[in-house]
Write a structure and sequence with these properties.
Mean pLDDT: 92
Number of strands: 29
CATH class of the largest domain: Alpha Beta
InterPro entries: Metalloenz_LuxS/M16 (IPR011249), Pept_M16_N (IPR011765), Peptidase_M16 (IPR050626), Peptidase_M16_C (IPR007863)
CATH superfamily of the largest domain: Metalloenzyme, LuxS/M16 peptidase-like
CATH architecture of the largest domain: 2-Layer Sandwich
Largest sheet: 6 strands, mixed
Pfam family, one: Peptidase_M16
Family: Belongs to the peptidase M16 family.
Strand content: 15-25%
Number of domains: 4
Structural class: alpha+beta
Organism: Cytophaga hutchinsonii (strain ATCC 33406 / DSM 1761 / CIP 103989 / NBRC 15051 / NCIMB 9469 / D465)
Low-confidence stretches: 1-19
Keywords: Hydrolase, Metalloprotease, Protease, Zinc
Shape: globular
Helix content: 40-55%
């Protein structure tokens, strides 16, 4: 879940003066057109909250980081509002809202409506018919009429229009209390966006209903294969016996999905999708007055209606701890959840108090769970998070066992941290440090329009005022240690459920069966009259702005180290990185070394105390390997930069070994290797893909052999790190300090000698398949997942523009040709994608990668459809032009700023560009024709030797039918993992 806390008046010391209160007051004002709006004094987002005449709320924040606007249309309804007899309805309606209206997505509405009415009536008969033969006959009628109706439909027209205005991230999500529709749009397209969205929400038209229903079936089956989702649903069902939070799930039951009702969907839409139950939340490069004028003109036509108020059922008190068990193929874990009988709208301050509790437990550095469990290596990956809801609130905790540890032992560790809160067994400085950490982290969040708009959505959905929302900082600052103890004692007793996730076969899973569905036409080159009307008037032009690296950054030398520098003029935070080039496939001991460093202290501080010292400073450090680089990052409050860098350098010079910690890390590594063999994503995307892409050892199997792992010593690892630290590396800095001040500090404090260093590397080579092959791995799952891989030519930077346009057109988005054909027309997959991928290293080849997530009994059809599209890419003039416009609009409105400038510079340099690559892409795509990407596809993709990878349950897959795609071979886990 997302968390967004507002930061006001940051004091840059450790944390003493940062606890002053900020006065928030709701006031009203009048804009230039005489419209009233609310605002809150001292609001860092400077939000305006309007209420249109029909009751629709509008939240606006002007933040001109780039000429783009993050938009959300939030509806205050979710799966909690589903009828008990038609669960999953809110989520399915979310899907249908992408299908258009009587104006969007149709070439002849009067004729289409006649057929759609027939389908609706038949579905009512279908869901009330028990006889299997009669149901089959009815569904055959539905399928036949659907083909006729689809002849008048224009599939994906909504997505096409959003693509044409350069929207990004077009999507939606449904949870228990909200359904939210997402678009990130160029600021010059707000007029068209408003026209489209206002029409979109004016009515519901369930066109292409049965093909989209099949996509939801796929999504349900995908969830049945997700142990994490099963744990969450079991947790909610255990906590809530009366409230819909627990009695029904967002995706719905198998039985209800098999018996949908268009009539019920329409009733739901007409009940909850009304203006006074909706909000528009926008943040970005906008003008308040002109934006609200546009929104008022377009959205005022939405109807206002009384919305039913669902009284929250009163749950029986949980007086003794509850337990439940979930079984599945993935690694074991334990999840624990407290039900807190407090409704957020009735007590907005409660969520802030709960947030304090959560951060005292887990903050990534110095929380009780962070230090007492993770840092102390008493369990793996322990965590906590809060889930505030309108009726009740929840605190979630969880973790994974060490080798040989029981789930009950992990549960006891988590409960002990709750006891520590009750007894005050935590240090006095931790509460103000948490507040300071929040202030620091939200400085970064304020740089995201998404986070700003998310905050508006939360306030609206919870039904609390904007003042109450941003007042969270004052509440956090006022909380004392005794109040924490009192809160924990009052709310954390036996009112929890523990869910044990154990390994095993889940015999209770019900698969949603595959119905017989005929392909329907998508009419991809048709346009509705509405489409033509919207786009007949050109939008204002925004010209692209490219980076001039000579002006945007400083590439210099500090001592003997190459340095990249850019000044942060927006806030008081810094990020500094030391980067070592390790080569393409470095010594795997580096990963062990970095893991070990996290558990080391010095002769002055233990590892736990070191984390505490950094947390007090509002700073943190981390190690990671990204591509060919080992990166040490130090970040935080600039005023504490010198103290933090001094502390970091002291740690490097004076680190002390910890043999007990190293032994546990080795045990954890071996357990993680075993756990990886139970993770279908790791099996397919890492192990199987690595096995077929490389000859012999590959980046995934380049690990320390178990016998070698067991004998590596602490002294070896510390010596290896110090040798690396003293070698030549790059310094990258983004922060408020001047380059002169930075250079002075690093010259004085950075102890590295900058020596040359010979690095151990393992050579690897890519395989060159001469014929098609099919490899499969057996895995207990409802669905099946398929990857198609084809090696193409070696990297050539001149192909990058054509690659981007091809991916946009063919298979990289919801508006792409692959998505239209495989999901919209043929209902063959919920998740589907096909792209031509750039390698990370310019010395490596290109690969064409296609993915299909589908039901096991549809593999043959899905593969046939994907291969047909890849080998015979259809032409669509409209889709091609939309793809061009989408890329050009995106580049024109994209602004690379802040730390991104430095990252962009290094990425371009790695790929062979010394200037901003976006200019070459924009200039090339501007003049491209369909023949260019057709030639590209024919030259680099068409009929290349293809490797097909399949993971699924062997008793659900027809292997005989797969032989037409090449030799079929089963792979063992030992083969693909190398151990």
């Amino acid at each position: 879940m997302k968390h967004f806390i507002l930061s006001i008046g940051l004091s840059i010391g450790c944390f003493s003066a940062a606890l002053s209160q900020t006065a928030f007051e709701t006031k009203t004002a009048t804009d230039s057109k005489g419209r009233n709006y609310e605002y809150v004094t001292n609001d860092p987002l400077k939000a305006r909250i309007y209420t249109l005449s029909n009751g629709l709320k509008v939240y606006l924040s002007d933040y001109k980081d780039a000429p783009r606007i993050q938009t959300y249309v939030a509806v205050r309804t979710g799966s909690k509002n589903d009828p008990a007899t038609a669960t999953g309805l809110a989520h399915y309606l979310e899907h249908i809202l992408f299908k258009g209206t009587s104006k969007i997505g149709t070439s002849d509405w009067p004729k289409e409506q006649i057929e759609l009415d027939k389908i609706e009536a038949l579905y009512e008969v279908y869901r009330n018919t028990a006889d299997a033969k009669k149901r089959t006959a009815i569904y055959h009628q539905i399928d036949s009429i659907s083909v006729v109706a689809a002849g008048y439909a224009i599939a994906n027209e909504y997505d096409k229009m959003l693509s044409q205005i350069g929207a990004q991230g077009t999507n939606a999500y449904t949870f228990v209390e909200q359904t939210v529709y997402v678009n990130d749009i160029p600021s010059n397209q707000i007029q068209k966006w408003a026209e489209i969205e206002a029409e979109r929400f004016s009515m519901v038209v369930p066109r292409l209903f049965h093909t989209e229903l099949e996509a939801v079936y796929e999504e349900k089956n995908k969830g049945l294969d997700n142990d994490g989702r099963k744990v969450f649903e079991t947790t909610m069902a255990s906590l809530f016996k009366k409230d819909a939070y627990g009695t029904q799930t967002t995706i719905g039951t198998v039985e209800h999905l098999k018996n949908p009702s268009i009539t019920e969907i329409k009733k739901y839409f007409n009940t909850y999708y009304v203006a006074n139950n909706m909000a528009i939340c926008m943040s970005g490069d906008l003008n308040y007055d002109s934006t609200i004028t546009l929104l008022e003109k377009q959205f005022s036509k939405l109807l206002k209606k009384d919305v039913p108020v669902l009284a929250a059922p009163v749950e029986e008190a949980i007086k003794i701890p509850l337990q439940a068990t979930v079984v599945g193929p993935t690694a074991e874990s334990v999840s624990l959840a407290y039900r807190l009988d407090v409704a957020i709208p009735k007590d907005p301050a409660f969520r802030s108090k709960l947030k304090m509790i959560q951060m005292l437990l887990t903050n990534g550095q110095a929380g009780l769970i962070d230090l007492n469990i993770n840092q102390a290596q008493k369990a793996m990956g322990a965590y906590s998070y809060d889930l505030p809801l309108k009726d009740y609130s929840i605190l979630m905790l969880g973790g994974k066992p060490l080798e040989g540890q029981t789930l009950e032992a992990v549960e006891a560790l988590l409960l002990q941290q709750i006891t520590n809160l009750k007894t005050g067994n935590f240090k006095d400085w931790l509460i103000p440090a948490v507040v300071n950490d929040y202030k620091t982290s939200t400085m970064t969040q304020f740089e995201s329009n998404k986070a700003r708009a998310d905050a508006f959505v939360d306030a609206f959905v919870w039904g609390i005022s904007w003042k109450d929302y941003i007042n969270e900082i004052n509440i956090l600052q006022s909380i004392t240690k005794q109040q924490v103890q009192d809160f924990a004692t009052a709310y954390f007793q036996n009112n929890y459920v523990t869910v044990f996730k154990r390994k095993g076969v889940d015999s209770t899973i019900q698969k949603v069966p595959k119905p017989i569905i005929s392909s329907v036409p998508v009419n991809r080159d048709s346009q509705s009259d509405f489409y033509k009307e919207v786009f007949k008037t050109p939008s204002p032009v925004i010209k692209p702005v490219y980076l001039d690296y000579a002006k945007e950054l400083t590439a210099s030398i500090i001592g003997v180290f190459p340095a990249l520098y850019k000044q942060n003029k927006e806030n008081a935070l810094f990020t500094q990185q030391y980067k070592w080039d390790l080569g393409k496939m470095p010594d795997p001991q580096n990963s062990l070394m970095l893991s070990y460093l996290n558990y080391l202290g010095t002769d002055k501080y233990t590892a736990e105390q070191l984390q505490e010292e950094f947390y007090k400073l509002g700073c943190n450090y981390s190690f990671r390997i990204a591509g060919s680089e080992l990166i040490l990052t130090l970040s935080g409050i600039q005023d504490n930069y010198v103290k933090a860098l001094t502390l970091l350098e002291s740690f490097v010079q004076r680190m002390k070994g910890n043999n007990e910690a190293l032994a546990q890390i080795k045990s954890n590594i071996l357990k993680s290797r075993a756990d990886n063999k139970t993770n279908k994503d790791v099996i397919l995307r890492s192990a199987m893909a690595g096995y077929v892409k490389y000859d012999g050892i590959n980046p995934f199997t380049n690990i320390i052999p178990e016998d070698r792992l067991k004998v590596i010593t602490s002294e070896e690892l510390i010596a290896a790190f110090k040798q690396l630290y003293n070698s030549k590396h790059e310094i990258v800095y983004y922060g408020p300090a001047s380059f002169a001040a930075l250079s002075k500090s690093i010259t004085k404090l950075h102890k590295s000698k900058g020596e040359s260093l010979m690095r151990i590397q393992t050579a690897y080579s890519f395989s060159k398949p001469a014929a098609n092959k099919v490899y499969w791995v057996n895995y207990d799952m409802v669905q099946a997942e398929v990857l198609l891989l084809s090696r193409s030519v070696d990297f050539n930077k001149e192909l990058i523009p054509a690659i981007q346009l091809y991916n946009e057109y063919f298979g990289g988005s919801m508006g792409s040709l692959v998505f239209q054909e495989m999901r919209e027309s043929r209902a063959l997959a919920y998740s589907v994608k096909s792209t031509f991928d750039l390698p990370y290293y310019p010395s490596d080849p290109f690969y064409s990668t296609s993915y299909i997530g589908t039901q096991a009994d549809k593999i043959q059809e899905a593969l046939s459809g994907m291969v047909e599209l890849i080998d015979n890419m259809p032409k669509s003039d409209l889709l091609f032009e939309n793809s061009k416009i989408s890329i050009l609009e995106t580049i024109a409105t994209q602004r690379v700023t802040k730390l991104g400038v430095l990252n962009d510079y290094e990425r371009n340099k790695r790929m062979g560009y010394t200037t901003d690559i976006r200019k070459a892409i924009f200039d090339s795509i501007s003049v491209m024709t369909f023949n260019d990407i057709h030639t590209f596809q024919q030259t680099y993709i068409n009929k290349q030797p293809r490797i097909i990878l399949i993971i699924g349950s062997k008793d659900k897959i027809d292997f005989n039918s797969l032989s037409e795609y090449g030799e079929v071979k089963e792979l063992t886990l030992e083969e693909i993992f190398g151990y």
